[in-house]
Amino acid sequence: MKKLLTILSASAVLLAATTTMAMAADKMPAVVFDMGGKFDKSFNQGVYDGVEKFRKETGIKYREFEVKNPTQREQAIRKMAQRGSDPVLGVGFAQASAIEKGAKAFPKTRFTIIDMVVMQPNVQSIVFKEHEGSFLVGVLAAMASKTGKVGFVGGMDIPLIRRFECGYIHGVKHANASATVYANMTGTTPSAWNDPTKGAELAKSQFDRGADVIFAAAGGTGIGVYQAAKDNGKYAIGVDSNQNHLHPGTMLTSMLKRVDVAAYNTFKSANDGSWKSGIQVLGLKEGGIDWALDEHNKALITPAMMAAMDKAKAEIISGKIMVHDYMSDNKCPK
Amino acid sequence: MGEDFLLIILTFDATIRVSVPLILAALAGLIVERSGVIDIGLEGKMLAAAFAAAAAAYATNSAWLGLGAGIVASVLLALLHGFACITHRGNQIVSGVAINILVSGLTVLLGISWFSLGGQTPPLTGDARFKSLTFPGAEAVRDIPVLGPIYSELLSGHNILVYLAFLTVPMVWWLVYRTRFGLRLRATGENPAAVDTAGISVIRMRYLALILCGILCGIAGSYFSTGHGAGFLREMTAGKGFIALAAMIFGKWRPVPVLFACLLFGFLDAIAIRLQGVELPLIGEMPVQFIQALPYILTVVLLAGFIGRAIAPKASGVPYVKEH
Question: What ipTM goes with this model?
Fold first, then answer.
């Protein structure tokens, strides 16, 4: 019994010591990754690359947490703020309510959320014009397709993914007005982001109907789509981060959402004091959206495609082409 | 017409692909429940096998060694379940759920420490995957109406695990109904005291059933990562173990009805995929949410109205205590 008491008091002292140490430490930025994890070869990994770049450049370490189920989001955000982290970076639309609650509870902490808007005085919201990037890869898909039929596989059925779909359809029709687009959503629950088996089946069903290029905006589910494209000798288009390296020769391109730039800028601006709350919209013009061209897909891109892409890009930037934003009215005009 | 027919064949083709893990897992559940052990851990065993198979296949570049590793991992978990609820007479549901939770975390943890890809394994290529087998003459007969597509699309062109899964059904039927082992197995699940009186060890029978269950779940799990897919992703079994349990109850613990229950679930899944975004006559385009809820709605309707009472083996879930 006595021994037990000794251990207990010793651990209490130790606990107190670590707490004070944490309090004394300098303010550290923190990032809360969402489900999928920081090596999802997609969205979260883009953020990871950005914050790693910041760490390497400045030598400032950051706290991180990978959310494994929905209930952890709020705990993780609060915990980070409680431990004195600043700024706290939340990744993904799903963390919006957690960030909002955290921002109210810790009004002095700066929060940034990528991919969603949270209206709070101490929150910076970074969103992307995914429809512009989707339009671009849609143009490329239509030009690469031999059958005139292309596909789209979305993850969870939410307005954000509909925005990808809508932009993509417009891009395809822009390049080939008579093209057919098959669009499927994987599911209506968060597990739709992590179901490669279903992704492969959706892709196969579109190939069976004649599609030969598929754009997947579906997180981990996309891995199954790309594999199915490779197995069937068709093309696939990656999303969020550059996924061309996954299957060189199969990956036509990737639509880039420069979340790495967004994450890096957040930490950087918070560090040098230029961080501002409010909404930042990153599109083609701001360099927040792009399409990937590297050694893995160079051989697939013909000069004609290259020219069409450059033209479309310039026209979107100049405002000559207005890509419809699904989230502005929850509609996708045909 | 020819186009539509091909589309129907391709839907059945997809049905076969998605039914395979269900069939194997449901038969695994059938064997253990017939021996009187409930196994909620089918999902966990498949997930563990999927991970072990992908990891071993990646390391050795052999899908067969991957399959072996998957089976070993799954059998070890089955034995763990047995140790908890046969030897120590623990609660079988709790033990099964514990295995699911353990595997869900452990696969990701090991994945991160071995491959540093956030719990995924590297994508598998070449010999590390089971390849599709093309039947002789499949290309030649493709253009023959009706029979051609059936042969070349539906029957040919799957990997070996698919054929193995369908072969398992008559094998399990034969084992359960036509062998001495099967008779004893069924007796153990209905009236273990009588089996014990006859001088047969209930504990041994239940352990044997669990090992068989482990082997089948091991094959099912390997199918996810080395057959149908190419590599492991966290939670990639996506609840198939639970659907398999439902199919087992649906099929009233009998191999052939269980096969059809699995095919029905697989078919609903395949049709849900293909109905999305398609304009149907009269109704128009149906909302995605409805299409995706369809398998579950039909399950409830069928379970409630059409199959009648499903009666589990009497001693299922009851630990056997020898009387003194």
Answer: 0.77
